[in-house]
Automatic annotation (TrEMBL), chain A:
This is ABC transporter ATP-binding protein. PROSITE patterns: ABC_TRANSPORTER_2. One of its GO terms (molecular function) is ATP hydrolysis activity. InterPro entries: AAA+_ATPase, ABC_AA/LPS_Transport, ABC_transporter-like_ATP-bd, ABC_transptr_urea_ATP-bd_UrtD, BCA_ABC_TP_C, P-loop_NTPase. Residues 6-242 form the ABC transporter domain. SUPFAM superfamilies: P-loop containing nucleoside triphosphate hydrolases.
TrEMBL record, chain B:
The chain crosses the membrane at residues 12-30, 42-59, 66-86, 116-139, 146-164, 194-215, 245-269, 281-306, 318-341. InterPro entries: ABC_transp_permease, ABC_transptr_urea_perm_UrtC, LivM-like. It comes from Paractinoplanes tereljensis. It is a multi-pass membrane protein. Coiled coil: none annotated. Pfam families: BPD_transp_2. This is Urea ABC transporter permease subunit UrtC. The lineage of its organism: Bacteria, Bacillati, Actinomycetota, Actinomycetes, Micromonosporales. It is found in: Cell membrane. The keyword Transmembrane helix applies.
């Protein structure tokens, strides 16, 4: 928690000739909720994959002074970079407590792994409070609601004491109230941490983003505050095909997102 | 929050008292009730059960389909058999070697097995080192699923072939047999036979206690997590290879211990007992009993062992088919093995309309696909 920033410079990712990300640069600092948006195939998730070591990328991604690219996945995690996935991936057969306990075990000695758990770590209780899962301690993660699973994933990042949280579509499939709760949660945890969110949901982005980077076909199209980005004619062109008013419905390119937003405006 | 705490401890007490009951049955009741012949057979089943407990850990909890546990079974068995052969031969070269070449000296790798201490250490160290190297190489390269299973199976075939083809050094297909002594005790003495049985049964109890502690520990949870979502575990900052390695090495150690006790109880070890078929039979017992449960693997292995010596001797042709049929039926209708029956009955009684879904099918499918 030294206030180190995540700085990505000239990131390239290629899949056998196809350039998925071609020279993307952005940075994210503690205290802001940073959004990475763009149409399908813009390379948002690929950026996160490269930063976390899941796919190979060239260029640079630094956390403070430390270069992340080229390191093994679990070593990058140990440096304090945590992520979630588009589909919630919690351990279905384990309880909420067991899930969190595994996440907290990162900094434990191997000998203590051989003992049974006694009681609940303070860091786990704190994360449970923070994410509103305190009542679900003994629930198997597999029967949690979709939103709760996403919160559990965020809670797991909190107990693993991640300095950087890379969240891949955290509110996909959530109800309006759940989205609001998630947004508030993100703003709370972003006070001391770097939070980078990949999203399709423009409404959610508008409400909670501090700064936004728009990707298009593997390149940075626009960068700035929500208002700046929305006013950018290049962004409007990509999202609308023509230069028009960037309405909530029109800015979302994904059909579900459009449907969602339309539903919301009807309500 | 308070609701959770009594649950695991209650379950822990149930599991512990189950192990205690099992211990009483094996260590006190069985020797009093069974004839010498059946007690000896039970000892043999205990040896398979020890290996099965290890398979339960690696396969049931760790998701590694270890199809070649015969390799580690062989390491323990042949280490023990070499020592017992040398003990029987005394200062002379073992009889079967003289048969092929009367003047040849004892092979160099046999020499250290004269020492009882070296033999006991070898039974522990050999499988740990072998499984450690093999597991490290495989898991770091992320070999898993069917590839892992086939590779381990191939190793069992290779080792059995190697032993078959080195008649002078290992006894070949005839194997090693005719042991007279067991660390100074005369093996023909019925009292000593009971003692050997008791050692095997006690080791089985120890192995059960060991996996019980594994399952309730944080490592056990981590192992299940690795089985179900290896990539996710990586993103929690663990190297899944290390977690799997520990489970694999422990299971190899257990197979070796089972093999070592098999030799004085059965009195012979041959490549047939450690090859592909034998390795699969070990797996079959575990699947039959319930691979992820505490008692399932041991009881399943004992049941298959019992079936083999009762039905297998009276109706050898039919036994193979019965075993195959049982295997198919269990996999189809009870993917979690026989030990999941009580829970399923309970579930059916609770909500008769609802069909309980077998919990392991998804994982099983994934395993086959992977």
């Amino acid at each position: 928690m030294t206030g180190a920033s995540l700085v990505v410079t000239d990131l390239h990712v290629e899949f056998s000739g196809f350039v998925a990300v071609g020279g993307v640069s952005f940075d994210a600092h503690p205290g802001e909720v940073r959004f990475l948006i763009g149409p399908n195939g813009a390379g948002k998730t690929t950026c996160i994959d490269a930063i976390t070591g899941l796919t190979r990328g060239t260029g640079s991604a630094r956390l403070g002074e430390t270069e992340l690219l080229g390191k093994q996945v679990h070593k990058i995690v140990r440096l304090g970079v945590g992520r979630t996935f588009q589909t919630a991936s919690v351990f279905d057969e384990l309880t909420v407590l067991q899930n969190l306990d595994i996440a907290a075990g990162l900094h434990r000695s191997s000998v203590s792994l051989l003992r049974a758990r006694r009681g609940v770590d303070p860091s786990i209780e704190q994360a449970l409070e923070e994410t509103g899962l305190a009542g679900e301690l003994a629930t198997p993660a597999g029967i949690l609601s979709h939103g709760q699973k996403q919160w559990l994933e965020i809670a797991m990042l909190l107990v693993q004491d991640a300095k950087v949280l890379l969240l891949d579509e955290p509110v996909a499939g959530m109800s309006h109230d759940e989205r609001t709760a998630t947004g508030d949660l993100l703003q709370r945890i972003a006070v001391k941490r770097i939070v980078l969110v990949v999203e399709h949901d423009m409404d959610f982005m508008r409400r909670f983003a501090t700064r936004v980077t728009v990707l298009h076909q593997g390149k940075v199209l626009s960068q700035g505050t929500v208002a700046e980005v929305q006013a950018d004619p290049k962004v409007q062109e990509v999202y609308l095909g023509t230069a028009g008013a960037a309405t909530a419905a029109a800015m979302a390119v994904v059909p579900e997102a459009v449907a969602e937003t339309l539903k919301l405006t009807e309500d | 929050m308070t609701k959770l705490k009594p649950l695991p401890s209650l379950r822990g007490i149930a599991a512990l008292s189950g192990i205690a009951m099992f211990a009483v049955l094996l260590l006190a009741v069985a020797p009093a009730v069974l004839s010498d012949h059946w007690l000896n057979n039970l000892g043999k089943y205990c040896c398979w059960a020890i290996a099965a407990v290890g398979i339960g850990l690696a396969w049931g909890r760790g998701g590694m389909l270890v199809m070649g546990q015969g390799v580690f079974f062989a390491l323990g068995a042949y280490a023990m058999a070499m020592h017992l052969t040398l003990e029987t031969a005394g200062d002379r070269v073992p009889g079967f070697m003289v048969l092929y070449d009367p003047l040849a000296p004892l092979p160099a790798f046999w020499e250290p097995f004269r020492s009882a201490g070296f033999t006991l250490a070898a039974i522990v160290v050999l499988p740990v080192v072998a499984a450690g190297i093999l597991g490290y190489a495989l898991f770091k390269r992320r070999v898993k699923g069917a590839y892992f299973a086939i590779l381990t199976q191939a190793l069992a075939v290779a080792l059995a072939t190697l032993i078959s083809s080195t008649i002078r050094e290992t006894g070949g297909d005839t194997g090693l047999s005719d042991f007279k002594f067991f660390f100074g005790f005369v093996l023909n003495d019925p009292a000593n036979k009971v003692m050997v049985y008791l050692i095997a049964a006690a080791l089985l109890i120890v192995c059960l206690l060991a996996v019980w502690q594994f399952y309730r520990s944080r490592f056990g949870e981590l192992l299940v997590a690795t089985r179900d979502a290896e990539e996710r575990v990586r993103f929690l900052g663990y190297d899944p290879a290390n977690i799997k390695l520990v489970a694999f090495v422990v299971s190899a150690l257990m197979a070796s211990i089972g093999g070592a006790m098999f030799v004085p109880i059965v009195g012979i070890i041959t490549p047939a007992e450690i090859g592909a078929a034998a390795s699969i039979l070990m797996i079959a017992g575990v699947a039959f009993g319930g691979r992820a449960s505490l008692f399932g693997p041991a009881l399943g292995a004992m049941a298959v062992g019992w079936g083999q010596s009762s039905l297998g001797s009276t109706w050898p042709d039919g036994w193979t088919y019965i075993l195959g049929l049982l295997f198919v039926v269990v996999i189809l209708f009870l993917p979690s093995g026989l030990s999941s029956l009580p829970a399923r009955f309970a579930a059916i009684r609770r909500r008769p309309a609802e069909q309980p879904t077998p919990p392991i099918t998804a994982a099983e499918l994934e395993e086959v696909r992977a």
